[in-house]
Write a structure and sequence with these properties.
alpha/beta; Rossmann fold; 7-stranded parallel sheet; binds NADP nicotinamide-adenine-dinucleotide phosphate
Length: about 230
């Protein structure tokens, strides 16, 4: 796959990993990049067009798909993290809010743009997931639940879209140095390194990208747990 043939929509493109994807795609010579955000303010050029998109607004998602018939690749990057515990009085509300973006936003954008991509002869949908798709931890209930469900969504999308010529790539990483993890003191990946690794793997045809050791370990630990359960 050559990015010079690809017209790419990135969600949550105004900061963090989304902004890194836009810069990396521009440097790779992508044919065009639609940098979508709730309040688009990012760079504009002959190859980058900022467009407004709140992934939880289904009317806006559908209208954008109508207005961008040239898209061949979507990067579902928009995401939120909210701390939640089973003992929070509003835990259901927190999981609801997080899932509306991380799960249902990804679903809405994918469902709206899959017909566009297939009409253009196929392409790519890449979902930014997380090592948290497989991990549990204090405070992580809402985020991890939404990413685990988004992983299942990604697998089910692949089953339907691969036969239609659409590569569906899950991107997993551990801690990335963005606003989302601003208070986390430990070592973090640079957003640009994650974007570069993911885009290289996508171009090579990978449908699962485990960017770092943390996501690799999270996936294999989960597999071991499942194996023990099966015994
Ligand atoms: N940081 C990490 O350690 C880490 C690790 C693994 C995976 N991830 C995933 O990487 C992705 C990007 O996160 P990040 O680390 O770059 O976090 P971030 O700096 O907090 O950026 C989140 C982005 O998502 C956008 N967004 C949130 N809700 C949205 C909505 N309803 N509609 C459209 N855009 C929305 C934000 O836009 P606004 O500016 O409008 O809020 C922002 O652009 C997320 O899916 C996240 O789960 C992050």
């Amino acid at each position: 796959m050559d990015y010079s043939d690809m017209v790419v929509l990135v969600t949550g493109a105004n900061r963090g990993l989304g902004s890194a994807f836009v810069s990396a795609l521009a440097e790779l010579g992508a044919k065009h990049v639609y940098a979508s955000a709730r309040h688009p303010e990012g760079p504009q050029s002959s190859r980058i067009t900022p467009v407004p998109l709140d992934v939880t607004d289904r009317t806006q998602v559908a209208a954008l798909a109508q207005s961008l018939p040239d898209v061949t690749m979507v990067i579902n990057n928009a995401g939120i993290h909210r701390r939640a515990s089973l003992f929070d009085a509003d835990v259901v509300d927190i999981v609801d809010v997080v899932s509306r973006t991380n799960l249902l936003g990804t679903l809405a954008v994918s469902a709206a743009f899959a017909p566009v991509i297939t009409a253009n002869g196929g392409g790519v949908i890449a979902n930014v997931l997380s090592a948290g798709s497989w991990l549990a931890g204090p405070g992580n209930l809402a985020y991890a639940t939404s990413k685990a469900a988004a992983l299942s969504l990604t697998n089910n999308m692949r089953a339907e879209l691969n036969p239609r010529g659409v590569q569906v790539t899950a991107i997993h990483a551990g801690f990335i140095d963005t606003d989302m993890m601003a208070t986390f003191p430990g070592p973090k990946l640079s957003p640009r390194a994650v974007a570069d690794a993911a885009l290289a793997a996508i171009a090579a045809g990978s449908q699962e990208v485990l960017v770092d050791g943390m996501s690799q370990k999270a996936k294999s630990a989960s597999a071991l747990a499942v194996a023990r359960f099966a015994d």
